[in-house]
UniProtKB/TrEMBL annotation:
Name of this chain's protein: Superoxide dismutase
Enzyme Commission numbers on file: 1.15.1.1
Domain of life: Bacteria
Organism the protein comes from: Sphingopyxis witflariensis
Residues the entry annotates as binding Mn(2+): 27, 78, 159, 163
InterPro entries, sorted: Mn/Fe_SOD (IPR001189), Mn/Fe_SOD_BS (IPR019833), Mn/Fe_SOD_C (IPR019832), Mn/Fe_SOD_N (IPR019831), Mn/Fe_SOD_N_sf (IPR036324), SOD_C_sf (IPR036314)
Domain Manganese/iron superoxide dismutase N-terminal: 6-86
Gene Ontology molecular functions: metal ion binding; superoxide dismutase activity
Amino acid sequence: MTIAHPPLPYAQDALAPHISADTLATHHGKHHKAYVDKVNAAIEGTELADKSLEEIVHHAEGAGNKGLFNNAAQSWNHAFYWESLSPTKTAPAGDLLAAIERDFGSLDDLKKKLKETAVNHFASGWAWLVSRDGTLSVTDTHDAGTELTTGIKPLVVIDVWEHAYYIDRKNLRPAYVDAVVDELLNWDFAAKNLASDTTWTYPA
């Protein structure tokens, strides 16, 4: 079994003008694919060859295999990020909106926290909306770090590696983050993750 490089859940130009088709061709078609290819090369012929990507991530972290962890976690984070974006504007409702208002005060306050966390994260990494036993919070992880391994449930994520925005916006990370949070975040995906008894799994 090999780890898949799943297709985007929308057309390559579907997020324009906020994220261009050129960015997605490079980010999904080259960066994400390279991580997947390196995972498959590393596990070929080993006991991990028939494991899920989640199992590989956990194994690599526990074994201290930084190279495998970086590529496996980045593969998982990227697939989760594509799902965290929607070409059709969405809005929180129901249980998700109630949880946001309970834990942040308002949707605007959550958006402000997400933007601050994503913009102020130093160097490469990820900004997450997560649920710990039903309580929501915003976190960030460095480099390939993933909330998959922390025992809390990720709801959506924002990629703040430069390759996520540099083609479109050069060094203007705040403009990219504003566009993602205000226009592209997939709140329906967040609601499904909040309601689920399990953490989202990478497409086979």
